[in-house]
Amino acid sequence: MKIKGAVLREVNKPYTIEELELDAPKAGEVLIKYAYSGYCHSDLHLMLGEIPIALPLVAGHEGAGIVEDVGPGVTSVKKGDHVGVTWMIPCGVCPQCRKGLGNVCSGNFGNFLQGMLLDGTSRIRDKNGEMVRHGNFVSCFSNYSVVPELGVIPMPKEFPLEYAALMGCCVPTGWGTVVNTAKVQPGEGVAIWGLGGVGLNVLRACAMQHANPIFAIDLEESKEGLAKEFGATHFICNSKDDPVPIILKETGGVQMPDGNWMGGGVQYAFEAIGDPGAIVQAWWSTCIAGKVIVPGITPYDQTTNLPLMLLPLHQKSILGNLYGGISTHVDIPKFVNMAMKEDLKLDKLVTNKFKLEQINDVADKMNKRQIQGRWVMAWD
Prior knowledge:
Layout: E1 2-8, E2 16-22, E3 29-38, H1 41-47, E4 57-58, E5 63-70, E6 82-85, H2 95-98, H3 109-114, E7 124-125, E8 131-134, E9 144-148, E10 152-154, H4 161-166, H5 170-182, E11 190-193, H6 197-208, E12 214-218, H7 224-229, E13 234-237, H8 243-250, E14 254-255, E15 261-262, E16 266-271, H9 276-284, E17 286-294, H10 310-313, E18 317-320, H11 328-341, H12 346-349, E19 350-354, H13 359-367, E20 374-378
Parallel strand pairs: 4-8, 11-12, 11-16, 12-13, 16-17, 17-18, 19-20
Antiparallel strand pairs: 1-2, 1-4, 2-7, 3-5, 3-9, 3-20, 5-6, 6-10, 7-8, 14-15
């Protein structure tokens, strides 16, 4: 069938909007007509070549839509069902999966990086008949795509599909980072660097876990209102102020005659943007036995000169975190249920909608830090 999609052919180049040919789903696969697709900072990383991955591919990994058809053997969904998609598909048999760490499955990671489905092949071809790869198993910057059944999450029909799309990445990543990895408890102090889609969900989860104080830090002063809406007790614009002394002072630290600070700090510092300098600030903002948790993806060629003397002396921890440590088919339905019963602020998280033809402008705005919340592509 003919489909339309945004193809990433070269890094540091715009997406090309192309008519493509999509093959029918094979056994264990599902054909989805997408309704909404979120534009994530990880999509920008791929576009800028900051995360190495095979090209060309139909990009996009945060989407939701309606089942159009199913391949042989599919039993979990049927035509007409509303679904979200997930870019992490545990194989179930690799060492990580056997330990309950399906969010960092190594068994399917090769196909993920190569842009193939689980059988090692693609269903997408361009107008010249040349293979185009699947972006993160999902390829939701196209109006239709074939995805593995294991990557499809049924959604209640009363749950808006624009919010269902966010369940593919930013909501579970943010919430899982707080409740699964950090296990934030009431009254514990937290700080969040980066108030994009993931950072805002980290912030909202911390607020609903009754953390206190909650410091929200971003380069853009314009995000203060949104930060307070999501539950921040303090906002710091770190293009104007160094957040470290502010956090240490507000959490009981004492400034010494030499200007250094003793004591204070938050129990958890979340770095949700992937910036080496922010990771260093997060490190210095934590208390003794504090934890720095990094769901943000740093470009592959960037490093940081992090002072480590206090790593053992203060018993600090630095934890990388992928996808919030979630189990996709267990946790995503839980977050959907929460969103339908509690105020996750998803209506505030979705701040704009755009069309496929505007995707390069959206990428440019994100690169210039001109986007608040999550912008989603609307297909209808």
